[in-house]
Amino acid sequence: MTEYERWLSQTLEDKSLTEELESVRGNAEEINDRFYQDLAFGTAGLRGVLGAGTNRMNIYTVRKATQGIANYLNKRKSGASVAIAYDSRINSELFARETAAVCAANGIHAHIYPTLTPTPTLSFAVRYLKCDAGVCITASHNPAKYNGYKAYGSDGCQIASEMADAVSAEINALDIFADVRHISFEEGMEKGLISYIPDEVMDQFLEAVKSQSVVDEPLRGLKVVYTPLNGTGLVPVTRILDMVGVEEVCVVPEQEKPDGNFTTCPYPNPEIRQALEKGLELCEKVHPDLLLATDPDADRCGIAVKQNGEYRLMTGNEVGVLLLDFIARRRKERGDLPKNPIAVTTIVSTDMATPVAEYYGATCVRILTGFKYIGDQIALLEEKGEEDRFLIGFEESYGYLSGGYVRDKDAVDASMLICQMAWYYKQKGMTLADAMDALYEQFGYYKNDVANFAFEGEDGMKAMASIMDSLRAKAPDELAGWKVVGWSDYKTSVRSDNGVESDITLPKSNVLEYRLENGSKLIVRPSGTEPKIKVYFSAKGATAAESASVLEALRATAKPLLGIA
Questions:
Q1: Distance CA 105, CA 6 (A)
Q2: In the CATH scheme, what is the code of domain 2-202?
Q3: Active site includes 140?
Q4: Which residues fall within 8 angstroms of residue 380, CB to CB, at 6 or more apart?
Q5: What percent of the chain has pLDDT over 70?
Q6: What is the 3-state secondary structure (H, E, C) of 141-157?
Q7: Which CATH number does 445-562 carry?
Q8: CA distances for 280 relative to 100, 227, 298, 432, angstroms
Q9: Cα 397 from chain centroid?
Q10: pTM for the full predicted model
Q11: Of 92, 140, 402, 415, which residue is the catalytic one?
């Protein structure tokens, strides 16, 4: 209440924030939710609901975070520079300009894209312009009421824990009003401390994407329906598809233009069918080979393919395995498959990636959830002069990357490769659904799913912590009737197999994994970007029906395991 009253006493530049605060006067629950904490700054930066308060995304929380980054950089070097990008969300351009203005007020040169642009282009700009850090204003695929602030290091990766902790300490030492340096965006431009990123950078980004092509012929005869889900993908995705010779791209008209309200898809996530409904409607009219969708900041990519008269939405795991097989297959056919190739995926992604990689003589490296860890693996190869060994990195959450030109997932790259893959199999009389079924026949039916359990507000955060504490206090003996033969606690870095404990070499993370006697597994992980716990299920069977049956049994264990009614 003290902080609420302090905000009310300020003459806020954004008058709508004052009006919002006045509108909740007397509503203790609403005031508490806005002020019970500051938005936490971590390796994912900031993410939260738009609005007034310390626990909301607004110009003041954005300025404070930027001041923390500025203090961090200025303590380590003089003449630092930062690259800035933003997506189509509400206030994204405003927050990007405010970020640039605070940087400029602290003597840090801000390079800002002149228009909205995908998240991977920010990673590219950081490296191309040799910046010391980067900021992308985006909430990825969250609903319209959210926005976010992703922070990047000089390597183009989202910041690691060490930098996040140091920046967070700087932020926590600041008063949100008194300690933030700020000038106008226009003054920063006049002083030469803010400049627009030239078109050359986007052109070079697209050339870097095209260099990842594994099909030399133009993709003539391929017909694609594409939706950018009212986000940033329209220009770069259609440009790259033109560059590789896709002649027929039908853009979903209702989702073509940038719109942070996402009126046709309240949850603009290409993982879910609801977001693709408009695209599917267009598919029934124009009959394409493929429906392609990118999320608002164009770092995730989803697809649907017609099979047996209906459109099948391919999962992130399926597309990741398809791309791994396709890239390795094509490079082997062309004779440029490197020695000792490497594919990188996460501990929650499909186990199917391992046998597919091994089939081509590749090693499948498992890392924690978060594409920065895939970026770290690319950097390690680069340090040894072996970056050509990297085939692909992917996450089950629809993120893919096939090259080292950026250090983040890239839906522009994925769109190009998926279209090349669809064209390649079309020449063989197959769809991507057919190709996936062939891989299942070859390697076994690996099925994966995820359940999300939301926990809103302060009580929700406490409930999530309590659930994880309870699971750590006592691991289950069995799940769905199968004995738990092993578990891993990535927070304590301990792994147990049949009672024998060993160390986990990955960074610490609040994740628990349970391995069952039938080869299945279940993973519990609080989301790093949303107030929810995710439960991942992994099953393998000799047939699709057997795998589906195991998966259904695992799903039924989730609520009892978490203690949810």
A1: 25
A2: 3.40.120.10
A3: yes
A4: none
A5: 100
A6: CCCCCEEEEEEEECCCC
A7: 3.30.310.50
A8: 40, 10, 19, 16
A9: 7
A10: 0.94
A11: 140
